[in-house]
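Q: How do we represent a protein-ligand complex in a form that can be generated token by token?
A: Start from the inputs.
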Amino acid sequence: MRFDVLTLFPGIFEGYLSESLLKDAIERGALEVHLHNMRDWANDKHNTMDDRPFGGGPGMVLKVDRIVPCVEEVQTFAERPGRLVMLTPQGRPLTQRVVEELAQEERILLLCGRYEGFDQRVVEILQPDEISIGDYVLNGGEVAAAVVIDSVMRLIPGVLGDENSAVVDSFSSGNRLLEEDQYTRPREYRGLTVPEILLSGDHGAIERWRLSNRREKTLARRPDLLDGEEMKIDEDEKKKKKKRSKKAKEPEQIAEPENVVEAKPSETPDAADATENNVDV
Ligand code: ADE
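Then emit the structure tokens for the protein with adenine bound:
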């Protein structure tokens, strides 16, 4: 996949692109990121890219007669033109669904604004996909463009070391739930212990625990993410729980729970043993 970033401050991306996963993906050729300094399209001796707004008001506006030729020329820098994304707080919100949509593209141009934004005729002529990364105002589109690159590149096959890890992330395709709580060694820290089930080696029980942890967390923190189906499952679970606790309160019903063995810490595998038993830690 190829990204072309159009910015007045290409230096902002340099550190970010030269570290960790991005660096590896670029070195392996799984990802191309080309930076273009839009000021190279300024054609006057002062390299002017912006001007005062007609009608008055604060700030400066990026000039249509600089930005449009810049985008049009960058579009010719590869075999096929790319999808043009403009980063702006007025755009549609970037969600994982939008990220998945963008990941289908072969090439994306990321147009980063500064100051008060672009002359509206840039939008009318180029008809970009306007995207916002959240309801707050950044100093420019560069950080937002980095967020787009970061979130999209994770979905490109071969970019992440572990092919599966993007799939199980919160919000990924087919999984609109928040990620479950994660633990690693030590098993106990300041009196806080790891849920016993994760050390049990019982893969089925662990998967059930993970799913129920994801659902509970999503319901508590981000109920807006749960679609009708998830809500229904959750309601069913709540009903079952209520039924169970009602039963437990009736004195004559109290009995030793079947099939539940009190876990003795000495008998449960340590995280290290768990690894031997192929348990994720
Ligand atoms: N530029 C300034 N603020 C922005 C935001 N929230 N999202 C995308 N681009 C921006």
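The pocket of adenine is lined by residues 87-89, 113, 132-134, 136-138, 140-141, 144 (CB under 6 Å). The chain has two domains: 2-153, 188-276.
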